[in-house]
Specification:
single chain; alpha/beta; Oligo-1,6-glucosidase, domain 2; Immunoglobulin-like; 8-stranded parallel β-sheet; 20 helices; about 15% strand; globular; binds alpha-D-glucopyranose; binds calcium ion
């Protein structure tokens, strides 16, 4: 791996496989990773102090969530100065040190590029709102009011924003509305304006590329082009003033042109700096392909959200009214996105956590007992580690961090989206809706993944000093259940130890796991997730069998034998490559057809060292 970790001299689109396909990415949420100075907020020096931990885990690229100057109303996704560092996170010099420290370890660093909108405290917006004739007026999206038949002022369209409420806020000073797909404190930039685009390229991208960062995770990448006729959205929720309207501002008419321009003017000239786009509301492979087909020269890869949004009631209105779903649905999404790139020049990502979702082990696994927690955290590791695409881990996933305990109340939730939906439920006066929203938040809220990282079993889990009040409460499991890095480091068979092993195997057999062809077996099965990965050139195969249930499951009763699934020829033997079970639990697993509760295994059709 080490020697693959340099950029191609060509522009990275053609020829040799680029480094980022086989690389393991790791997302750091700076507020919650490690506090170095005892103010209760994680910071960049804290992150630097743990780079060796990440390297040892097997991480190649760090994605750092926003650490820019910001009023922090949406945790830094509301930027007021792209070239300054929020002082709780550190200084520009700290970022320079971070870049150098990553590179010294043969790791790379990508930043979060948030350019659909700025904070309303960004100087560009302050200018824009200062008068209708200000040269930056057109850098944001301003529209006059409409009036209803009774003469009441209403917004230019009926669109609902992500955090509840309308996408428009009235500005008294200039007597117009401005557009914001997210909070009213996040006005959308007007990408139709060429000087605005050039300022974005220069101030937010080249500035950091010049300092040595290796690329960007691009926030909201498919929302820069809106429909410019601003029609009302169809009524999906009668009686509501604001309607879901993603088709009005997502994947809009000029989106591919804008992204190609960004690639051509900024990313390609910087030796093809890496780009991974956040592609929400785009569930069809035919819509995704144009963004990631190499021939189109847009993005290296994107995050697609069908799987991770399971259980939500869509992105709007009912998002936090939890909708149960069968395992077969999860598997179908995975199968779609594992196979959509076959025969194309596209590439994709693999992930099951980020800072906008609940923890995977609490959503897709089982935390009802310590044993099931461990089994499911490892099964998830094996699942993710054997899928085709670039693997992204989120901080704490590698130790099996969980959602907040169910007993914690709404006062522990800090996220503006959680607050928007909760307050909306409260305002409805409907007790059932309040209870259901709270229940949904317990599973799906963005807050869960933002709890302080669990380094050890001390009072604040080693995230910050013992007497400090951290910005979010530390999960009890850090001290009560030994769910922390220190305890897991001392135990090679822990979740952490298992992740390390899986990441090594993933690299050793990259042809199978990172690049292999995916074949789904038993797609209708509601307990087992079974698939074959095949090395395209060598014909080597791996059979991945994951028990996503708390009961023993037999493959044989489903008509599957390991040897047949692997296509073993006469005399050829299947070999167990890895199981999630601890050594002492492995007794009796010679019968390969039976899986323990929350056990995952991989069998291969080739000999060791072959
Ligand atoms: C993206 C981010 C999310 C943020 C939103 C607005 O979805 O991942 O955290 O709230 O964009 O910038
Ligand atoms: Ca700090």
């Amino acid at each position: 791996m080490a020697d693959q970790l340099h950029h191609d001299n060509q522009d990275g689109w053609v020829g040799k496989e680029p480094y980022w396909k086989d690389a393991v990415f790791y997302q750091v949420y700076p507020a919650s990773f490690k506090d170095s100075n005892g103010d209760g907020w994680g910071d960049i020096p804290g992150l630097i102090s743990e780079l060796d931990y990440l390297r040892d885990l097997g991480v190649d690229v760090v994605w750092l969530s926003p650490m820019f100057e910001s009023p922090q109303k949406d945790m830094g996704y509301d930027i007021s100065d792209y070239q300054a560092v929020y002082d709780r996170y550190g200084t520009l010099a700290d970022v320079d040190t971070l870049i150098a420290s990553c590179h010294d370890r043969n790791m790379k660093l990508i930043l979060d590029l948030v350019v659909n909108h700025t904070s309303d405290e960004h100087p560009w917006f302050k200018e824009s709102r200062s008068s209708k004739t200000n040269p930056k007026r057109d850098w944001y999206i301003w529209k006059p009011a409409r009036y209803d038949p009774d003469g009441n002022r209403i917004p230019p369209t009926n669109w609902r924003s992500y955090f509840a409420g309308p996408t428009w806020t009235w500005d008294d000073n200039t007597q117009e509305y401005y557009l914001h797909l997210y909070g009213s404190f996040q006005p959308d930039l007007n990408w139709e304006n060429p000087s605005c685009r050039e300022a974005i390229y220069q101030d937010t991208m080249r500035f950091w590329l010049d300092r040595g960062v290796d690329g960007f995770r691009i926030d909201t990448v498919n929302k820069y082009s809106k429909r410019t006729d601003f029609p009302d959205a169809p009524i999906t929720f009668p009686g509501q003033p604001n309607q879901p309207a993603a088709e009005m501002w997502c994947n809009g008419p000029r989106i591919h042109e804008f992204i190609r321009e960004m690639q051509e003017k900024v990313l390609t000239p910087y030796n093809h700096a890496l780009s991974v786009g956040e592609l929400s509301n785009t569930p069809l492979p035919s819509q995704v392909l144009p963004y990631v087909s190499a021939a189109n020269r847009e993005l290296d890869m994107v995050f697609e959200f069908s799987m991770i949004r399971l259980g939500t009631g869509g992105a709007f209105h009912g998002k936090y009214l939890y909708q149960p779903y069968p395992l077969s649905e999860l598997k179908a999404h995975v199968a779609t996105w594992q196979t959509f790139l076959e025969g194309t020049d596209a590439w994709h990502t693999v992930f099951c956590e980020n800072h906008d979702n609940g923890r995977a082990v609490s959503r897709f696994g089982d935390t009802s007992s310590h044993k099931n927690w461990e089994g499911s955290a490892k099964t998830i590791a094996l699942w993710q580690g054997t899928l085709t695409g670039t693997l992204f881990l989120y901080q704490g996933q590698e130790i099996g961090m969980m959602n907040m305990p169910r007993g914690w109340g709404i006062e522990e939730y800090k996220d503006c989206e959680s607050m928007g939906f909760y307050e909306e439920a409260v305002a409805s006066g409907d007790q059932d809706r309040i209870a259901k929203t709270m229940d949904g938040l317990r599973i799906l809220a963005r807050d869960h993944s933002r709890l302080p990282f669990q380094w050890d079993g001390s009072a604040n889990a080693g995230f910050t000093g013992e007497n400090v009040v951290p910005w979010m409460r530390v999960h009890d499991s850090a001290f009560e259940d030994g769910l922390n890095v220190k305890a897991q480091k001392e135990d090679e068979e822990s979740v952490l130890g298992f992740y390390k092993t899986v990441l090594k195997l993933r690299k050793e057999y990259g042809e199978l796991f990172v690049h292999g062809a995916f074949r789904h077996l038993l797609p209708e099965d509601e307990a087992l997730f079974v698939y074959v990965k095949e090395g395209v050139e060598s014909g080597r195969r791996a059979l991945v069998v994951l028990n996503f249930s708390a009961e023993e499951q037999a493959l044989s009763s489903r008509g599957v034998t390991v040897a047949r699934a692997l296509g073993c020829e006469e005399g050829e033997e299947a070999r167990l490559l890895i199981t999630t079970l601890r050594e002492r639990e492995r007794l009796g697993i010679e019968s390969p057809e039976r899986l323990r509760p929350w056990e995952g295994r991989v069998y291969v059709n080739f000999a060791e060292g072959a």
